[in-house]
Amino acid sequence: MYWQLLCRYISKDEWEKSVQILPLFFFYNLKLLNFSAQNLKVKTENCTITFQYPEEKKILFCSIILDANQKDEINASTFTENNIEKHSTNIYCGVRKTDLYTLKIYCREILFPFYVCVCILQIYFTHSFSDDVVLYQTSPRRQWGPGYDTIVAGLLLVSHQKTVIDIEDEFILIQFKLTCSLGLFFTLLDSQGNLLEKNILYWIADMMVFIKLTSPGSGSYTFNIFSSDGKKTSNSIPSCSYLLNFKTSPCERFKNFQIPNRKLGITEQGPRQRCLLLSETPILFMLQIVVFWKCILK
Fold this sequence. Notes:
CATH superfamily of the largest domain: Immunoglobulins
Protein name: KY-like immunoglobulin-like domain-containing protein
Organism: Tegillarca granosa
Low-confidence stretches: 278-298
Domain KY-like immunoglobulin-like: 13-125, 154-248
Mean pLDDT: 76
Structural class: mainly beta
InterPro entries: Ig-like_KY (IPR056564), Transglut-like_Superfamily_Mod (IPR053041)
Number of strands: 19
Distance between the termini: 82 Å
CATH class of the largest domain: Mainly Beta
Helix content: under 10%
Order of helices and strands: HEHEEEEEEEEHEEEEEEEEEE
Number of domains: 2
CATH topology of the largest domain: Immunoglobulin-like
Strand content: 35-45%
Largest sheet: 5 strands, mixed
């Protein structure tokens, strides 16, 4: 029986009232830090479930909320936040209707392609968000912040570990170290899913990627980082996702610049035109480019 795998002896009755945990919970050596009962009564608009995992485990989490019959998924009701420095994950939950819900939590090791269910909770929300409140943003990655999938993709975090970033200035500069040559592209989306491509600028220097995001206006935005062979496909999964809360009015400074793929520096046509970048200073518009023509030897 599963309760025999616990670090202390518990009775069958105590086990049946505790959180419903599945065998892989023990396989991954997970710890549920803030809840022990299977049935929770939440007296606030949302609740937070916190997991911790061993340092040697490279784990990703995701979660879904279902109705009481465990049939229909309640969209945008969970937010899964990674913290690879603390080897922990926070799962935030909130709904628009007071009722009983089922929270299912999944995880997978970074090299394993499929998520498996490790924990199930029954949550009764006595309070709910009003209709005018935007619930949690969604992402095809299903978790937020830099994670082990970010590292495997070839990106080492330099500047921002925090998943949700409040921005008081008209721009933010996010930096990563590249561990290999990558094709990169980015998306910035508003709460309605509209693509805000002109608010993105980036450049690469000395195996560092610098991403400058200008304010589209006060509000919350989803920023996704994709790393692959450079092909934009509809089923691509981000390597990293941030939730950005801009507090300032729209920044129009760079919107009218016609920049291919929003990348500064040598473009794809550069090598064909025999362009060589001698200095890769990461200061905006201070790139020094010289053009040389190869002599034809006969």
